[in-house]
Amino acid sequence: MQPCLLLALALLGTASASHPAPASPEAEEAALEVPEEDARCPLESETRALSIPNPLGATTFRYVIVTRCQTFQGAQRVCAQCYRGRLASIHNYHTNACLQRQARLCTNRGQVWIGAITRPAVRDPPCPWEDGTRWNYSHWLRGYPLCTHRYCTSLCTNNGRWRSLGCQVRLPFICKY
Question: What stretch of H or E contains 106?
């Protein structure tokens, strides 16, 4: 549980701050009420736009890194409403490295959302891209993805590796459009 939530519950006398009960990621997400997210489109000062040519073809993909933190669902909403896109799917090392470097330059957080969700019932691929594109590349940190529950995927801005996180965490994010 979050330290602030534990303190609030302890002060109300409904939980012990010294011995919190273990909870599954789903139980923690359900127990935490997330305040309504900022639905307005990001300001120019909260974004960095970039284009990355596809090394295997003539297509150039456009991305925007949004520094305003959102939950995974909030980030998906901003990508769709403000950029007519989706959270980024990444299909090669070159794109992953470019996005990692740019995200590190413009965010002060160690991770950003990208567009994959692990689903325990799905085994191949374990984390399909939310934009429906083919799963043909991954760059997971050792020990990931976590496939025991539903998790969302982040890109580490320090090493470019991917991690599974609870979807209610608020992070900057990368849209692809």
Answer: helix 93-106
Nearest to 87 by CA among 171, 146, 149, 148: 171
Give tens-digit pLDDT for 22-70. 344 444 444 344 445 666 899 999 999 999 987 777 788 899 999 999 9
Classify 34-176 by CATH class. alpha beta
Domain ranges of the chain: 1-28, 34-176
SS3 label, residue 3: helix
Q: Report the pLDDT averaged over residues 143-160.
A: 94
Which amino acid is present at 89?
S
Cα gap 125→136, rounded to integer Å: 9
- Specify the DSSP element, H or E, that contains 62: strand 60-70
Quick one: which of 99, 124, 112, 114 has its CA closest to 49?
99
Strands 171-176 and 47-53 come out as unpaired
